[in-house]
Amino acid sequence: MQLDEISILCVYSAMVVYAIAFIAFSIDLAKRSAAVTAAADATPEVTAGAPEHVGVLQAAAAAKASAAAAAAEGGASAGPARPAKVKLGAAGGPGAGASVAYGRSPALRVGVAMTVLAWLLHLSGTVLRGLAAGRVPWANMYEFALTGTLIITTVFLLVLVVAKQDLRFLGTFVTGLVLVLLGVATINFYVSPIPLPPALQSIWLVIHVFVASASVGFFALGFALSVVQLMQARREAVIASAKAAKASFLATLPDAVSLENLAYRVNIIGFIMWTFTLMAGAVWAEKAWGRYWGWDTKEVWTFIIWVVYAGYIHARATRGWRGSRSAWLAIIGFSTVLFNFTVVNLFFKGLHAYSGL
Amino acid sequence: MTSRSDPGAPSRPADHIDSAEPDPGEASVNQPKLGVVGWLRFAWRQLTSMRTALLLLLLLAIAAVPGSLVPQRSSDPNGVTQYFDDNPTLAPILDGFQMFDVYTSAWFSAVYLLLFVSLIGCIIPRTKHHFEALRARPPRTPARLGRLAGYTERTAPEGIDAETAIATATTQLRQAGYRVERYEQRGVLSVSAERGYLRETGNLVFHTALLGVLVAVGFGGGFGFSGQRVIVEGQTFVNTLAAYDSFNPGRFFDDTRLQPYSLSLEELDAVYETENRKAFGQPIDFTAHVTVEGQGEESTDRTVKVNEPLYTHGTDVYLLGNGYAPTITVRNADGEVVFTDSVPFLPQDANLTSIGVVKVPDGMDEQLGMVGFFYPTQETLDTGAYASTYPDLVYPVLTLNVYQGDLGINEGKPTSVYTLDPSTMEQLTGGDTGVDSIELMPGETTELPNGLGTVTFENASPDASEGDYSQSVPRFASFDIHHDPTQIWVLVFAVLILAGLLVSLFVPRRRMWVKALERPDGRIALEYAALARGEDPTLEDAVSAFADKHAGPADDAK
Ligand code: HEM
User: Fold this and answer.
1) b/e string for A207-217 if b means 16 or more Cβ within 10 A?
2) Which of A320, B122, B320, B455 has the most CB atoms around its CB within 10 Å?
3) Has the ipTM of the complex gone over 0.95?
4) For residue A52, what pLDDT band results from cuts at 50, 70 and 90?
């Protein structure tokens, strides 16, 4: 079997496992709704850390005492004590009466485990594709999709590890999106590995395209958070108006403000990477085409995406725009990203004719 | 701009989320008294508000869209011509709205100029304010810390007095990068600290650098030039105005600044894929081997590749295209050479089927023109038509249609060397004439019709073995030659944009206070609290971490 065939096999297996993960995450969402309905007596789970640690003042007091003792004995004074590292367990629970604590259902665990497995298969498929082609695996539409979706999953898994909040509930969205994109890519975009044309033989292919894909990973997550934020904000509005809110999985999720803050943090990372993408693209364009900016269709859309997200960041800082309105801008932003990747690549004419189709 | 009670806070437009809510009563009282100055001030405040900036940004995004839907003269002039042909009624209407020049159109310019005016109006007061804030002392400790973010209390260990506690806090805060100020209010000692001024600096650098990019780009076109030149292997180009095939100077460009260095194309190497069947014939590499010689300098060997331009003598030389330049010799009926040259043929497809034109103005009874097709690897399709099936020279064939008459070049009108206007000429071969087109392989000579003379397709490597045509036809390279003195400034500002962005989004700006209160039992109660200035997800952790470091873990955990 050839490397590329093994790669495709890995990708197909990854898709199957993603599908299983998707189902598991969906079951989890359904269970959350059930739990909310059932939970009248649910107690919020609070974890209190017991930090073991000495403050500088205590050290100072101790030092003072020992210095006094030492002085009394005529000995040398003690050196400064070094404080130990601090780790404080954060108190959990959003506090609002409208939320319901929810642990980790078996379905959720299965979902995460399957996502990790799918990610491994996906990673192998992508690496093998690169080996088969003898270059980085992101030089045509099929490969952009392969690597881009891999990064979406990677970012999701990374954020699960890094973020303080539990973002597993986004699994349905992430695995669903990745599955759909991979499906479209394997069915419609597949091309066999071919060498790079001279215009793509550049270190900037490695940098520019990779960072672009990575920012798409962050924007995707930010988009998902903004969507959940809007749903949560609507639910909170219903509760605030003292109407009975429908039992929904949303009650187990962070409140709208926390979701918004999370979305913002994810999106600004995406934005910085996108800024870099735009600049690196300009540097590359200067080398390959003799001008750094020429309003080629792809450049236009890169610019539009950048401006929309700049608008989003501004909206967050503008009175009357923070909250749901800025969330809509994040959603529009990600829609332009998807548009740029699909419609612009396939149907618009321009210098960036690298879809390979 | 906005009245505020807190001089240390970064200055923000009135509708910024951190600015104080406007007092509705005040506005309605002021409204009727607005004079001209009042109105101007009002308009200026509107223009420099966050909301306007936001709307202009969104407008800019929308305004950029049409330029990707309709071909643009700047990037795709042929596409525009095509569009006019395909949509004869719609195109002029769109043209009326400058839809084919979106990015230089009045309306697009209006949006971004307004945005940048707004930007200037926004950053000037903020910069001024920021300089003052950089010199100001951290503000007084609030009377009650209890309601502030991350508020926490600790009891100082026995034997520590308020003075010592605040002194160590001050040192520690300073070491953590805070600017500190000690206060004593009604006998209560406290330290007020602020850090993260860099956040605002970054934000201002970012916005100013945006302006810098705009200015640099705006002027960049003005001082530079861009020109094109096609060079056939073995030919030399001297960097003077007359030597360019086309030349676009910027508004302020002065051609005495062209350094007359010479650039010779020794060889153009083209490599095509031969192993991977799926990519057969795909270009793998183009390298132009050139020699460069400045006045009074040794000549040096250099290369130009697609992604590796040559920077020399103040110009940037890019390899943007290449193709074949068959060497054609025409002799008249007397056998005298009336034309001999390597004529660049423009590639029409991936397999380099190419079209070129030969013009023979003198030496014959009437002017002669020829339109040629060149097939590097010729094959005959089922329809009888010729095609090229591979871009390299495997079986090169040149076909020529001959025209006789007036070339239309005597009136001094500029005409393209790549096209022939047949309207004043009579076609002698090919087409409907009933006479077969001339067909030649390298090294072959044939008669022109009507006894006009002969035409030869010269073989560039006559000594090659039989059937090896790989070097038989010279290639040409088409170079773009640019000079843009402001490009480096665009790069500098771009780097500042990125740096400013990183700093302003990731450096937290926060204030922290530590207060020491004497308890009735003589021990010292320590209060800690902080205030975020802008996005600061780790604020509360920072307070408790500081308190832990300063006074040990929370009282209840002991
Ligand atoms: C040329 C168009 C503009 C672009 C692309 C742009 C972009 C951005 C970006 C990316 C940020 C977040 C990063 C940072 O804080 O440095 C930002 C923040 C900010 N911008 Fe702009 N901006 C523009 C124009 C303006 C204008 C005209 C104003 C004044 C009305 C303004 C006021 C602000 C303020 C106050 C912030 C800080 C927001 C905060 O407190 O979080 N910007 N801008």
Assistant:
1) bbbbbbbbbbb
2) B455
3) no
4) very low
Integer Cα distance of A254 and A262 in angstroms: 10
In this predicted structure, the answer to whether residue A98 has a pLDDT above a threshold of 70 is: no
Provide the angle, in degrees to the nearest 10, between the axes of the packed helices A106-133 and A141-162.
140
Q: What is the pLDDT of residue B26?
A: 47
- A56·B537 Cβ contact <8 A: no
- Spell out where B484-547 has E strands: 510-518, 524-532
Asked if B289 contacts B303 with a C-beta cutoff of 8 angstroms, the reply is: yes
Residue A64, pLDDT score: 58
Helices B50-64, A297-316: crossing angle, 10 deg rounding = 160
Tens digit of each residue's pLDDT (9 = 90 or more) over A120-174: 999 999 999 999 988 899 988 899 899 999 999 999 999 888 877 778 889 999 9
**DSSP secondary structure letters along B242-297:** GG-SEEEE-TT--GGG----EEEEEEEEEEE--S-GGGTT-EEEEEEEEEEE-TTS
Q: What is the DSSP letter of A167?
A: -
pLDDT, residue A59, reads 61
Half-sphere exposure of B93 (CA within 13 A, CB side): 4
Task: Label residue B26 exposed, middle or buried (CB < 10 Å: 0-12, 13-18, 19+).
Answer: exposed
Q: A272 and B17 in contact by Cβ < 8 A?
A: no
Q: Give every residue of chain B whose pLDDT is below 70, as ranges.
A: 1-8, 22-33, 220-221, 411-414, 554-558
Kindly report the nearest CA distance between residue B424 and chain A, in angstroms.
37
pLDDT value for A356: 58
- At residue A197's C-alpha, the angle toward residues A193 and A202, to 5°, is 105
Cβ-Cβ contacts under 8 Å between A and B: the total is 198
Angle in degrees, 0-180, between the axes of helices A297-316 and A256-289, rounded to the nearest 10:
150
Quick one: DSSP state of residue B557? G
Contact A355, A209 (CB under 8 A): no
A291 CA from centroid of ligand 1 (Å):
28
Q: Do A88 and B74 touch (CB under 8 A)?
A: no
- pLDDT the model gives residue A237: 84
| Sheet of strand B236-238, all strands in order from the earlier edge strand to the far edge | B236-238, B262-272, B283-293, B300-305
Q: Does the distance separating the beta carbons of B498 and A300 come in below 8 Å?
A: no
Task: Quote the minimal CA–CA distance from B407 to chain A in Å.
Answer: 35
Measured from the Cβ of residue A156, the count of other Cβ atoms closer than 10 Å reads: 25
Give chain A positions within 8 Å (CB) of B98: none
pLDDT tens-digit map of A105-114 = 788 889 999 9
Phi, psi of B108 (to 5 degrees): -65, -45
Pairing of strands B378-380, B425-427: unpaired
Angle (nearest 5°) at CA B93 between B92 and B97 = 110
Strand B236-238 with B367-375, pairing: unpaired
Which residues, at least 6 apart from B153, have a Cβ–Cβ distance to it below 8 Å?
A: B525, B526, B527, B528, B555
Residues touching ligand 1 (Cβ under 6 Å) are A 310, 313-314, 317; B 12-13, 16, 48, 50, 53, 57, 115, 118-119, 122, 202-203, 206-207, 210, 500-501, 504-505, 534
Distance CA(A192)–CA(A142), nearest Å, equals 9
Query: How many separate helices (H) and strands (E) can be counted in chain B?
Result: 11, 26
**What are A334's two structure tokens?**
């990600």
Residue B174 alpha carbon to ligand 1 centre in Å: 30
The alpha-helical segments, DSSP class H, found in chain A are 3-38, 56-73, 106-133, 141-162, 171-184, 203-204, 210-240, 256-289, 297-316, 324-339, 345-347
- pLDDT one-digit tens code per residue, B46-79: 888 889 999 999 999 999 999 989 999 888 888 8
Q: Which among B168, B205, B217 has a CA at the least distance from the CA of B189?
A: B168
Closest ligand 1 atom, residue B57 Cα:
2
For residue B375, list its beta bridge partners: B397
